[in-house]
Write a structure and sequence with these properties.
Blueprint: E1 2-4, E2 7-9, H1 13-18, H2 26-39, H3 43-49, H4 56-63, H5 76-80, H6 86-93, H7 97-107, H8 126-138, H9 143-150, H10 154-170, H11 172-175, H12 182-187
Antiparallel strand pairs: 1-2
């Protein structure tokens, strides 16, 4: 291993392959050494880590803690969406702003969208989650493009879509009524 300022460089090709050759920042370095302390008993074990025979699974599990810094559209939801004119909002999300507010008021109380920060990363604003889902349902764009537009991760975009769809399924009986009795025969 080699130190470069406050960065830690890992020369092992196997390790660099798993981490995509990136340098570790101070937070990642602390996680790395906590991981090593938990896994390895003595200095001899530490030397084993940088041998090609060391388990790729152990190194891969460590790579999960290291996040890449991606370039994304910043503040699209916070800055641009509120400035949309009514017709522009409707053309992007396929429903008007007032309908969106009603939808938000119906979907959030279902409990499918997190509204409080319990642990881990901060939550995504429920309004942003609903807009992400609407954008994905209204446009043919892929998850990656939508995640980039709304400045969230790919997995978060996927999770937003599923949460909002589950919430909509939960409240479907409020809006969808099948005809019964005489109305059923008239509909046929």
């Amino acid at each position: 291993m080699e130190r470069s300022g406050s960065k830690l460089l890992i020369p092992d090709p196997l390790f660099c392959f798993v981490l995509r050759g990136k340098r570790l920042n101070m937070e990642d370095e602390q996680v790395f050494f906590m991981f090593l302390r938990c896994f390895l008993d003595d200095v001899d074990d530490f030397c084993v880590l940088f041998q090609p025979t060391f388990s790729v699974h152990v190194i891969s599990s460590l790579a999960c803690f290291i996040r890449r810094k991606l370039i994304r559209n910043r503040n699209y939801f916070e800055d641009l969406v509120p400035k949309y004119q009514l017709d522009e909002f409707k053309s992007h999300f396929r429903l008007g702003r007032s309908t969106f507010e009603v939808l938000l008021g119906v979907v959030v109380p279902t409990g499918y969208l997190p509204v409080h920060h319990i642990s881990g990363r901060p939550i995504i604003d429920p309004a942003k989650q609903v807009l992400v889902a609407l954008w994905m349902l209204a446009t043919p764009e892929c998850h990656r493009t939508v995640a980039d537009r709304f400045d969230i991760t790919l997995s978060s975009a996927h999770r937003c879509l599923h949460r909002v769809c589950k919430a909509l399924i939960h409240v479907r009986r409020m809006f969808i009524r099948w005809p019964q009795g005489e109305a059923y025969y008239q509909a046929i």
